[in-house]
C-alpha cells in the first residue's frame, strides 16, 4: 500500500449535464483528503489537489458515478521536487530592485 502524498490529479470523466457536475462536486467535497478541486465541464476534466492517492480518487469517482474514469496527469507537490538527500532548496534568481530616491509624481497624493 503506497502512502498518500501531496499532489494534484487531472482526471477525465464524461460530464454530460449540470447534474453530473454537481454529483462529482458532492463526491469530491466529501473526501477528507481533498483540499481544492476544479471541474471543467467542457474539457470533461476534474482537477483534484490534496494529500491523497490518485488511484483512490479515480476508483471512488468510478464507483459513485458509474462512469469510466481516466487519470491524465499526476503532479507531485512535495517539497523536495526530486532532489536527493542533503541538497537544500535554492530560490530562483531575482534581480535586485532599484528604487529612485525622488518620489514619483504619479504615486504622491494631492493635497487640497
From TrEMBL:
SUPFAM superfamilies: HMA, heavy metal-associated domain (SSF55008). Residues 95-105 have a biased composition (Basic and acidic residues). Residues 76-112 are annotated as: Disordered. InterPro entries: HMA_dom_sf. It comes from the Eukaryota. This is Heavy metal-associated isoprenylated plant protein 6.
Amino acid at each position: 500500500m503506497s502512502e498518500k502524498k501531496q499532489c494534484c490529479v487531472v482526471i477525465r470523466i464524461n460530464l454530460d449535464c449540470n447534474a453530473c457536475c454537481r454529483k462529482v462536486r458532492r463526491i469530491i467535497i466529501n473526501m477528507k483528503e481533498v483540499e481544492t478541486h476544479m471541474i471543467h465541464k467542457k474539457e470533461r476534466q476534474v482537477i483534484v489537489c490534496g494529500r491523497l492517492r490518485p488511484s483512490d480518487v479515480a476508483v471512488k469517482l468510478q464507483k459513485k458515478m458509474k462512469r469510466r474514469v481516466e487519470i491524465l496527469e499526476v503532479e507531485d507537490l512535495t517539497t523536495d521536487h526530486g532532489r536527493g538527500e542533503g541538497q537544500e532548496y535554492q530560490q530562483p534568481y531575482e534581480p535586485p530592485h532599484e528604487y529612485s530616491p525622488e518620489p514619483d509624481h504619479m504615486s504622491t497624493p494631492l493635497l487640497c
